[in-house]
Automatic annotation (TrEMBL):
Organism: Roseomonas fluvialis
Protein name: ABC transporter ATP-binding protein
Residue span(s) of domain ABC transporter: 4-245
CDD domains referenced in this protein's UniProt entry, alphabetically: ABC_Mj1267_LivG_branched
PANTHER family recorded: AMINO ACID ABC TRANSPORTER ATP-BINDING PROTEIN, CONSERVED COMPONENT OF ABC TRANSPORTER FOR NATURAL AMINO ACIDS-RELATED
Domain of life: Bacteria
Keyword field: ATP-binding, Nucleotide-binding, Transport
Short name of one Pfam family: ABC_tran
Single GO MF descriptor: ATP binding
Amino acid sequence: MTLLAAEGLVKRFGGVLAAKDVTFALDPGEMLAIIGPNGAGKSTTFNMVGGQLKPDAGRVTLAGADITGVPPRAVCRLGVGRTFQVAQTFLSFSVLGNVQMALIAHHGQTRRLLADAAALHRDDALALLDRVGMAAQAARPIGELAYGDVKRVELAIALAAAPRLLLMDEPTAGMAPAERTALMALVAGIARTERIGVLFTEHDMDAVFAHADRILVLVRGEIIARGTPAEVRADPEVQRVYLGHSGTRAAARAQRAHG
C-alpha cells in the first residue's frame, strides 16, 4: 500500500509559481529524495506535505487518508516525524531529557509537573538513543555535543512519535563528510528495517545517490525527472540544468560503493 501520495500540488506566492502539478508517491521503507537548484520548489513541496503550507490545488494523502492542509501538529499525531535543516533541540537539557520531552509530548503529558518529567519514559528514551548510537552520551548536556551527534539526537526525537513517515529537511547540513555518511546510513537502515518511509531534501549529492531508492528533480516548481539514482544520473536534462560534473562524480562514487 502506498504510504504517502502527493497529487497535482500547486502553490503560488504572488505571481511566482513555486510548485506546478507536483505528483509523487512513497512506499513504506522507501527513501525518496527531492533535489534541485535553489528556488526549485523543494521546500515548498516539503512544507505542503508536512502541513506548514496549504496547497492552492492538489492533495496529499497518508495511507489513503486526506491530510491536505492539516496543521503540522495534527500531521505529527497521524504518524509523521520531522527533522530540520538546523537541529531543533533544547540546549539546556541533557541528551536523555530531550528525548524524554519528545515522548512526553507524544503521549500528551505536557501538563504533568516538571518535577515528574525526569522519571517519565526514561527506559523508552534510552532505547531510542540506543537505536541512533547515542545511549552512552545520555547524561551529557546536549550543548556539549558535536553537531553530528546533535543530529542523531534529533533523529531519536523524531522517532519518539513512532512515525510511519519521516520528513527530513537537509539532514546533513552543517555536518562533516564522515558524519554525513554515518547519519544517512543510520537513517537508511532504520527506514528499511522498520518500514518507515523517508522523504528528504538534500544538497549533498553523495548522500542522495548513495542512499535514495528514488529521486525527484525539481526545477522552477516542476518535476523534470524522476526515477532510480541510475536513471536520474543518465538523464541529459538533469545533467544540463542541475547535476553537471560534480553530480556525475557523486553518482559514480555511489555506484562504486554499491558494487
